[in-house]
Amino acid sequence: MLIDINCDLGEGNSEADCARDARLMRYISRCNIACGGHAGNATTMSLSLKNARAAGIAAGAHPGYPDPENFGRTTLALPRQELLRAVREQIQGLQQLAAAEQVPLTHIKLHGALYNDAEGDDRLADDLVGLIAQAFPGLTLLVLANGAMERAAKRYRHPLLREGFMDRRYLNDHQLAPRNMPGAVIEDFTQCLEQVTALATDQPFSSIQGQTLQFAVDSLCLHGDNPQAESIAQALHRALQRAGIGVCR
């Protein structure tokens, strides 16, 4: 059995940051490259693309609110067309560099507050998927399993991958528990591994409210901005191997 693992990368400023990212690439299937909105610049984008090609993993765009000061983690009250234009320009910027490096882009995953806002607003999700379906029909959307973006992608018949999280608790309705809810972030690594194995194998696990949940995902998120990301990736890799699960390459 195989599972896809994705990681948000290219969010630093320097070659050294990209070298750190490259060490994570041996443990993942695809990287989501920051493309100048919340983070990233021409240097980090180009290096991330080169490193992805060398590692043999898929490369995709990771657009967010154009707000590097807050790392794209704060909702911006932008006019809808301005927001859509910013998302389109970020993806196009990475596309141009990818073409120059001869690295095909495969997917798109929204970042931070924009990811969360789209999952909480059917209308925003519909507008974003509509833009992507029109402007980038060949790029698969990486979206929260059971969320608004998944529903919108299905309406547009746009290709998608359903994403699950190893370190976040879920509500009874299969949505992520809000970060400000006590216990929403799983800090015990053993519990993280238990949840990720359940998601990868479509086995039951517990919601934050104590209800049994069961649903499968297509891709698991590994957070690359954690200072311990490399050791977490190694432990995740070993845990999946013990469960008889390989990482897609």
TrEMBL record:
<dbReference type="Pfam" id="PF03746">
    <property type="entry name" value="LamB_YcsF"/>
</dbReference>
<protein>
    <submittedName>
        <fullName>5-oxoprolinase subunit PxpA</fullName>
        <ecNumber>3.5.2.9</ecNumber>
    </submittedName>
</protein>
<keyword id="KW-0378">Hydrolase</keyword>
<dbReference type="GO" id="GO:0017168">
    <property type="term" value="F:5-oxoprolinase (ATP-hydrolyzing) activity"/>
</dbReference>
<dbReference type="InterPro" id="IPR005501">
    <property type="entry name" value="LamB/YcsF/PxpA-like"/>
</dbReference>
<dbReference type="InterPro" id="IPR011330">
    <property type="entry name" value="Glyco_hydro/deAcase_b/a-brl"/>
</dbReference>
